Amino acid sequence: MSTHEAHAHEEHHHHEQSFIEKYVFSMDHKMIAKQFLITGMIMGIIGVAMSLIFRLQLAWPDKEWPIFESLLGKWGADGVMDPNIYLALVTIHGTIMVFFVLTAGLSGTFSNLLIPLQIGARDMASGFINMLSYWFFFASSVVMVISLFVESGPAASGWTVYPPLSALPQAMPGSGMGMTLWLVSMSLFIVSSLLGALNYIVTVLNLRTKGMSMTRLPLTIWAFFVTAILGVLSFPVLFSAALLLIFDRSMGTSFYLSDIMVAGELLTNQGGSPVLYQHLFWFLGHPEVYIILLPALGITSEVISTNARKPIFGYRAMVGSILAIAFLSFIVWGHHMFVTGMNPFLGSVFTFTTLLIAIPSAVKAFNYITTLWKGNLRLTPAMLFSIGLVSTFITGGLTGLILGDSALDINVHDTYFVVAHFHIVMGLSAIFGLFAGVYHWFPKLFGRRMNKGLGYIHFWVTFVSAYGVFFPMHFLGMAGLPRRYYTNTAFPMFDDLADINVLISVFAIVGGIAQVVFIFNFFYSALRGKVSSKNPWKSNTLEWTTPVEHMHGNWPGEIPEVHRWAYDYSKPGMEDDFVPQTVPLRPDEMETGH
Amino acid sequence: METFLIIIVALLALIALAQAMRVFELSGQLKGDDNSEDVTDKDNRNQGLLLLGALIFLMGGFLWTILEWSDVFLPKSASEHGVEIDNLWAISMGLIIVVFLITQPLLFGFGYRFRGSKTRKAAYMEHNNRLEFLWTIVPAVVLAGLIIYGLTTWSDIMNPSQEEEPMVVEIYAKQFGWTVRYAGTDNTLGYAHVRMSEGVNALGVDVNDANSFDDIIVNELHLPVGKPVELKFRSQDVIHSAYLPHFRVQMNCVPGTKTQFRFTPTVTTAEMRQDPEVIEKVKGINELRMEKGEDPWEFDYILLCNKICGSAHYNMQMKVVVETQEEYEKWLSEQKTFADNL
Fold first, then answer.
1. Peptide bond into A255 cis (omega under 30)
2. In whole angstroms, what is the distance from residue A59 CA to residue A503 CA?
3. Does residue A164 have a cis peptide bond before it, meaning omega lies within 30 degrees of 0?
4. How far is the C-alpha of A219 from the C-alpha of A214, rounded, in Å?
5. CATH class assigned to A25-255+275-545
6. Helix H or strand E segment including B234
7. Could you give the domains of chain B?
8. The CA-based dihedral angle spanning residues A60, B307, B84, B144, taken in that order and rounded to the nearest 10 degrees
9. Which of A6, A144, A249, A442 is the most exposed place for a label (fewest CB within 10 A)?
10. How far is CA B341 from each of CA A103, B189, B201, B336, rounded to the nearest angstrom?
11. What ipTM was estimated for this complex?
12. For chain A, what is the mean pLDDT?
């Protein structure tokens, strides 16, 4: 760095920031990361609480729950849940968990925190755009929460909001004002996501410190980088889908509507196709799965390697599989549409491309397992969550081989088998990745340590109840039980599933309560936790060379130069079992890993 | 007021909890246990053992659920192509269970076996081309087989043999019910469009089309056994999905578009009721129903809606009956034609 820059930086440091500059309209990537995390957690609490409410309904459909009336008002009068609010709850639960928690909360937090710190940059390429990205997300969250309180109820046509159901207020109350706000909220969300992603891409490409070649990047950065590319290429398509839906809803166009009679009224719309919406939606929707999953996998790579005290096995294969998964994720969307009546030939193509994803996924899973082999595993809560992630990634990924196979999908499409599959492979894996990230980088976020004992309790209860909730759902699906049913009591053939539903709900409630432990631990430790040392995990990556106390610009002096890859753990001939990236190669040392 | 009190109590409890944590941590520090947040060898041992426990939980849970819940699955397929699907299912499921049973023990086993200790050092292995090649190629080969098998099955189902002309039946969906229209003696459905829907002619059948006169509109789907049937789907309002789980049939009903699915039922309702597996299942369900004081249930095929369609989505169903040709013809002859109804 030139002296001029250093000088400018000094000056900047002297400038006292006001409260608003520092905590509210902050342009510092570390503060923005915290803002994303805490907003995501609040949305997560709402999303999880909703799932507990509808689990009560599903397990005990004949019972009256006074809590329904207190929480849902007229929709839960006398403790009986209205079918419309049930559909709204599953819709908003899905929307919140997929977008607000596992996209913004996960990627927004850790891309922001780690990209500048791990590549050796003073901040994001544009701090201002980064700030805008958060505030668009905040606005989007506010609108989504407001939509829960409108007279006709929140959006209720499923998180995929397929028209015509979502387009016609006559078809269900949730398609009225609630749906309008849903679309407004998602449009704001897409803006936030695009601003963030552009920043991430530019920062990774341009602001890497000296010596930080692409092949020396930690896998976290590779994952965030590729995720951002996925977002930039796919979110605009969702935006166009939402825009056309807005037109259909309020301007009388017919992009998705044709020949419809609803509630006794014949509509004039002609020539549109509801299936068009599905193509547009899933063109985002499938990459979205990997927008959620890849950051979690990146976090896991870093956490597993650091805590196994061993290089991540097959770094190049790991990068290659991220790229392969990302590429394939764009050409598989049709597997969500096997039974829409689209040309069977297309079904064949999508089956082929979908099953191909299993290959890079298998490579990743085996590489994780091999990284553990002959390691010296430090079983921190973060490490346990990462191991948990590998477990759910395998379990949930395997059933993808069934659902991606068009012939098999016919009979389990839209059943609980699908619910089981995507919650395990995407929901659980990503949330485990999020937890692993929080436990691992908490010292970097707040300069303090999280309580280890509470972390262990949190992990074990969460792990057991997570499997307890979602594994039995495979059986419901194989019994033919459709998802999004308010109750199963209308079909005697499903009567023998009642016990399974009770078991699932009990696990869900236990798992939900376990999250209170996490939230308590989080806030307690952020305020009163033990102050962390600079590099508590004896890690190699650059973020642990910055001072514990956050400072604008990250490094007090020059940005350190990088001399090696991030995974020199337990390298033979070295004193310690880790060698930070800033340590120059010894004259006799061979560079490994790239 | 009550809510207010609950909030106060919750806040106090939270403060108490935080103070207790503080006391706990301070006492730890006084005892000289200053590394309270670092992972000790003891932690590694305990957590390693718990990882083994997790493996036992997973494997045990897997076995227990399979043994305990094997009777909730759908009975054997009642259609020709369904048998193919079930075979493909069995092979795919077998394969993924094998992978599950290999990889999870490796993962958790390694977690236990290589739990850390201050005295050990990890091995340094950054990659191994031969190993990585192995686990790229083996999944690729296995998947190639699975893809070929899957696509063959799919193409058999979607392009069924043209030898026998199928019976044409329309399934009409609207919020929240199903209607069936038989093509009648000419096996050709009369033209229909939602714009012609009026009064009793809810399906919008063209009264001027000669093909419509012998159409038969009913609220129950009867199918003759062993005869190919082509279901044609229409929807009046939103997307519905016609799901016939016992026949392994599902197709969306999309407003503005026509979709279809061709299959051959192979087991009559009466035969299915005699199937030992079904008898067992029905018995179990009826025991549960008796406990709740509900009427006993008799097995029937069913068509249900499997695409979210509104408030009564959970109850959008129709009875399906598969019977012999004679029974079917007798039933059909008792129904009024479209012309009769006009």
1. no
2. 8
3. yes
4. 10
5. mainly alpha
6. strand B229-235
7. 76-115+128-160 (1.10.287.90), 169-341 (2.60.40.420)
8. -110
9. A6
10. 57, 16, 9, 7
11. 0.93
12. 94
Chain-chain contact of A452 with B154 (C-beta, under 8 angstroms): no
Q: Which residues contact A581 (CB under 8 A, 6 or more apart)?
A: A212, A216, A540, A541, A542, A562, A563, A564, A565, A566
Kindly give, in sequence order, each residue whose CB lies less than 8 Å from that of residue B311, ignoring residues fewer than 6 positions away. A82, A83, A84, A87, A172, A486, B176
From residue A38, how far is each of A20, A100, A102, A442 by CA, in Å? Answer: 17, 11, 13, 13
Asked if A526 and A37 touch (Cβ cutoff 8 Å), the reply is no
The predicted-structure confidence for B201-246, as pLDDT tens digits, reads as follows 899 999 999 999 999 999 999 999 999 999 999 999 999 999 999 9
Phi-psi region of B192 (alpha: psi -120 to 50; beta: other; left: phi over 0): beta
* Token output for A86: 């049930």
Do B154 and A407 make contact, defined as CB atoms within 8 angstroms? Answer: yes
Helices (H) and strands (E) in chain A — how many of each? 20, 2
Amino acid type, A98: V
Give the Cβ contact number of residue A523 at 10 Å.
Answer: 15
Smallest Cα–Cα separation from A48: which of A559, A545, A520, A510? A510
Q: Could you say which residues from 288 to 307 on chain B have a Cβ atom under 8 Å away from some Cβ of chain A?
A: 288-289, 297, 299, 302, 304-307
Q: For residue B221, what is the enclosing H or E element?
A: strand B221-224
Structure tokens at A338: 């096997």
Mean pLDDT of all residues in B312-321: 96
> Under DSSP, is residue A418 helix (H, G, I), strand (E, B) or coil?
helix
Contact flag A376-B116 (C-beta cutoff 8 Å) = yes
Q: What is the dihedral of CA B132, B133, B135, B140, to 10 degrees?
A: 140
Query: Three-state DSSP class for B252?
Result: strand
- Nearest by Cα to A396 from A415, A367, A422, A431: A422
C-alpha span between A73 and A264 (Å, rounded): 30
Residue A204: partners with Cβ closer than 8 Å, 6 or more residues away: A115, A119, A217, A221, A224, A225, A228
What are the pLDDT digits (tens) for A484-494? Answer: 999 999 999 99
Amino acid (one-letter) located at A408: L
- For A84, the closest of B73, B126, B311 (CB atoms) is B311
Tell me if A331 sits within 8 A of A398, measured CB to CB: no
Tell whether B58 is within 8 A of chain A (Cβ). yes
List CB contacts (< 8 A) between A351 and chain B: 147, 150-151, 154
Yes or no, beta carbons of A157 and B308 under 8 Å apart:
yes
**pLDDT tens digits for B253-278?**
999 999 999 999 999 999 999 999 99
Six-digit token pair at B170? 């329309």
Strands B317-323 and B301-305: antiparallel
Q: Which residues contact B116 (CB under 8 A, 6 or more apart)?
A: A309, A375, A376, A377, A378, A379, B39, B41, B44
* Tokens 């990924």 found at: A397
Q: Do B254 and A362 touch (CB under 8 A)?
A: no
| Spatial distance between the Cα atoms of A393 and A381, rounded to a whole number of angstroms | 18
pTM above 0.90, yes or no: yes
Token reading at A360: 């890079």
Interatomic CA distance for residues A527 and A278, integer angstroms: 46
Domain residue ranges of chain A, discontinuous segments joined by +: 25-255+275-545
- Which residue is it, tokens 């009986």? A80
Measure CB to CB from residue A165 to each of B106, B157, B308 and give the nearest one. B308
User: Do β-strands B317-323 and B221-224 pair in parallel, antiparallel, or remain unpaired?
Assistant: parallel
CB B104 within 8 A of CB A395: yes
> Is A255:A276 a contact under the CB 8 Å cutoff?
yes
